[in-house]
Amino acid sequence: MKSITFNQQKTSAIGIGTWHIGEGDANKTESEIKALQYGLDNGINLIDTAEMYGEGLSETLIGNAIKDYDRSKFQLISKFYPYHATEKLIEKSLKASLKRLQTDYLDLYLLHWRGQTPLAETVNGLEKMVKAGLIKNWGVSNFDLNDLKELDSISHGSNCRINEDLYNISSRSIEYSILPWQKEHQMSFVGYSPFGSDGGQYLKIKPVIKEMAQQKHITVHQLLLAWVLRNHDVLSIPKTSSVEHMKSNLFAVDVEFSQSELDLLDESYPKPNENSQLEII
């Protein structure tokens, strides 16, 4: 498994996303657990979830999937609602997530998106959870450049380890300013939804994608995931609900592009040349 430096440590090139995981019947749940375990058994060492996902169902499924694994061998990320971003509610939400996940700590705990609670209060709450040993580090999600700059100006705000935003071949706004700023400030980046949303929004598959995938003898999804990973500087977290899909994602890690192929894709999905509004799913 190829690796990148993420959260200041060696991390698998892809993680496991879990949005909508745990919301199906017994057969689907069994398939999802097997997929998670296959990923962990084959070199993936990061799982991303949130209290929002199925209102705890995703965390519960993950807890059942990982309970017999060495917790020190993988990173676990969860996220809390913005209306749980006060010092008191952060602790309450975190402890509920830890119970569902059947673990004593999180490697990263993220504010899912900005709400009404002042960032300073949220940061204070997260720092207390670090001191309590309930989380190793913390981060944010769905933050644009102005949000990141504001966070950095707050006391202890520079302790933010990661920001997680939408990133796929059609949603590239983070490349213009967010990704460069995070690199400059040594903040890792997570790109969610490499395939767009489940309904096909946020990513229109143009002919060049299908043609190139066929030429490279890979699937469209493998090409889309490989493209996100192309620079080895971001972590992508594709959702995976079956062993077959997990195997497909693992194969995509080793797909490479020539410069001419990348240029061709840029023609249909141009790089951003100015700041634009951050897309959020």
TrEMBL record:
This is Aldo/keto reductase. GO terms for molecular function: oxidoreductase activity. It comes from the Bacteria. Transmembrane segments: none annotated. Signal peptide: none annotated. Pfam families: Aldo_ket_red (PF00248). Residues 13-268 form the NADP-dependent oxidoreductase domain. Gene3D superfamilies: NADP-dependent oxidoreductase domain (3.20.20.100).
